[in-house]
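=== RUN LOG ===
request id: a7f3
mode: sequence -> structure
chains: 1
length: 121
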Amino acid sequence: MGNLWKENAPKYGYQVVVYETYTPRTEDMSAMILKAKEAGAETLLTVPAPPDGITMVKQRVELGWMPKFALMIRAPENVTWAETLGKNGDYFTIFPGWHHAENFPRVAASTRPSLGGPPTC
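=== RESULT ===
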């Protein structure tokens, strides 16, 4: 996903100022966070597993980097996100890994467009 963002950013008028990868379950993300902060990065786009996302947010807060926009796929969807991070876990944009057209047993029957579409809130 990161490569897609990196490759397509210039086409849409964006500049990638920092592009980093890490090994899952990395305990110290401070070098990556400080690079982003020092480069003046205004956006965070990332796809961490829940434990890595929680680590990333905790360290981002400790280091004082608050991007104007943060899209974090996967990590915030975990039930422990809000419990662990409290208010520091607020205001993240998520990209849910589910769509009403998916054909999952027991779920598909209640979300088919032919049966009225997905539930509304």
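=== NOTES ===
The helical segments are 2-8, 30-39, 50-63, 80-85, 108-111.
Residues 56 and 68 are 16 Å apart (CA to CA).
=== END ===
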